[in-house]
User: What shape does this take?
Amino acid sequence: MNLCRNLRRLAILLALTGPGATAADLPALTLAREGNWLEIRGDHLPGGRIRVNYLEAYCRAGSTDADWHDTVIPHDSQVTRTSPDGRTIEIRDTLADGLVVDHVVTAREDVV
Assistant: This one.
């Protein structure tokens, strides 16, 4: 999964900041969302950001034995709030059957 791979890269980067470095030594990470991309931003990141394809797939019961198109439940995703400091993004997914799923993504100095 892209998110896991990119978070591993971030963990490696943090490990390479030097002996004795702590999360407090790092500038704060911030977040942005553009389409399905979640951007983790920080001056200490290579290129200043890591882009993660942040997608959710909601599946019906019996999904392991069905065709993907018969399994997935369509949904709409939108950012409902971004904190003023850019460290928290709230996302709401509304499924075709009316179910609403809220996500909260939070960035700290060394973790998202």
Observations:
- The first strand starts at residue 30 and ends at 34.
- The two ends are 15 Å apart (CA to CA).
